[in-house]
Amino acid sequence: MTSQLSQHLPPTHTRRPRGPTLPAHRLPDLPGRVAIPGQSRGAPGPPSPLEWFNTAPEPDAERALLACLRSRRWALLLAGHRPYPDMASLLAASDEATYDLSPGEIAEALAAEPLPSLPEDTYTAAHTALNAAHAAYEAKFGHVFVICLDGVPGNEILDRVLESIRSRLANDPEDEHQVTKDQLRLLARERLGKPAGGARNCANNPDGAAPGK
Q1: Cα 21 to the chain's mean position, in Å?
Q2: Are 1 and 63 in contact (CB under 8 A)?
Q3: What 8-state DSSP symbol labels residue 209?
Q4: Which of 44, 64, 43, 41 lies closest to 54, judged by CA?
Q5: What pTM value is reported for the model?
Q6: CATH class label, 49-193
Q7: In the chain, where are the structural domains located?
Q8: From the first residue on, what is the mean pLDDT of each consecutive set of 10 residues in the chain (213 residues)?
């Protein structure tokens, strides 16, 4: 990537022990999450993160996007429709591109998603209950459970995740596919716009390529 890029964002999720239902060759955790906030204002200076994204070589822009959502078609669509006048336009384009993903492309994105993380002080019994819930979900739907927890207080994360898994276990596969797609859309929006230490927090550093790039 370029010198305009900021340091890695910390991953929004951490991988937890998995149920036995998914293949063993899952992709590794993503090395970072993209944040492409709106253009900064003030004295002239280096390009803003959004300006960098609008003008970066297409392979660099696609690599940055793949650190946000592991869908090559989604990344190609967003990179191919540059420039974006503002962050709202980029997020709207992200939503539209996510809605257009096929079941196979959703599966591609899910293959790189880690499980939702829990606060470090979560008690052992809660981890046991959550692992059992994840295993039941994966056994039914064949893929990892994903949920956007943006804005959820830390002390409510466990209850929110358990409640959501148990509720979504009642869905049929077609309905759950739509719910999953919408959660991926929300995760992509969160990662695209998540601030992290100032205006210049656009994407991975030069060594932070997304898996497979």
Answers
A1: 22
A2: yes
A3: P
A4: 64
A5: 0.71
A6: mainly alpha
A7: 49-193
A8: 36 45 38 50 69 92 93 95 94 95 94 84 85 95 95 90 96 96 95 52 32 34
